Amino acid sequence: MARRVTVVTGGSRGIGASVARRLAADGHDVGVGYVRDREAAERTVAGVRASGARAVAVRVDTSDETQVDAFFDTVTRELGPVTGLVNNAGVTGPLGRLTETSTADMRRVIDVNVLGALYCARRAVLAMSRRHGGRGGAVVNVSSAAATLGGPGEYVHYAASKAALDALTVGLSKELAEEGVRVNAVQPGMITTDIHAAMGDPGRPWRHPERVPMRRPGEPEEVAGAVAWLLSSEASYTTGAVLRVAGGL
Ligand code: NAP
Description:
The protein has 249 residues and is of the alpha/beta class. It has one domain (4-245): NAD(P)-binding Rossmann-like Domain (Rossmann fold, 3-Layer(aba) Sandwich), CATH 3.40.50.720. The chain has helices at 14-25, 38-50, 65-79, 103-128, 146-149, 156-176, 195-199, 204-207, 220-231, and strands at 4-8, 28-34, 55-59, 84-87, 137-142, 181-188, 242-245. A seven-stranded parallel β-sheet has the order 3-2-1-4-5-6-7, sandwiched between helices. The termini are far apart. Bound molecules: NADP nicotinamide-adenine-dinucleotide phosphate (NAP). NADP nicotinamide-adenine-dinucleotide phosphate is lined by residues 9-10, 12-16, 33-37, 40, 60-63, 88-91, 112, 142, 144, 188, 190-191, 193-195, 198.
């Protein structure tokens, strides 16, 4: 049987790095995307290889269509035809109310979180859909609990971008259901990664434990498990699902 080849955007750090390592343990070869932190991407690649899987790290800003195409070209050349995509790369910009949010930050969030995911999904579908000569596959979009909570006072623009990702998930799942491609999403809650420091508040995951019914933030591995299941044959009848992974939030 041909090996599964899965593209993970933002695979250098946080949830994406954890997903890449978990998929390797499940028998996927992994294309690891990163945009700035090459050393972190190389660490992910080493972790993937330690499981006996193949990996390649590629610098790609997913908001740039040309770079997305080059990323998929490299992964296909080095690892073989793509059978899976984890649309994980995402940004928030600084925490703040909408009136404090700059146009540049809003635009960046939409460019990366929405357009970037659309570019990657389109390219993956062209590789995987039976309509286009592929052998099927699966997409998992990394959304956020913010998509339904709305992120008031923190990042309404980011919440809106993640709600768009959920709509993408539902629509594309129906568009591709007969073509051998499943499309699902996870909505993580508060997960311990660098993203909170990038927002300007490294201690954010621990600041309000009472807001999370489980009274603790989640670990990237706890999201990776859900992503891995959605990509697996165990989820063969699951498409269009948006799975909350948020400790009850
Ligand atoms: P993180 O630790 O900040 O890592 C972000 C990853 O995305 C890094 O690998 C980074 O690459 C990459 N990236 C950033 N901008 C990119 C771009 N324009 N093109 C390509 N790659 C880019 O974030 P995280 O917490 O793991 O978040 C991963 C996903 O989960 C995001 O979509 C986020 O919105 C979502 N999420 C996170 C949480 C949470 O609490 N952590 C909750 C809900 C949803 P470099 O390493 O090269 O910078």
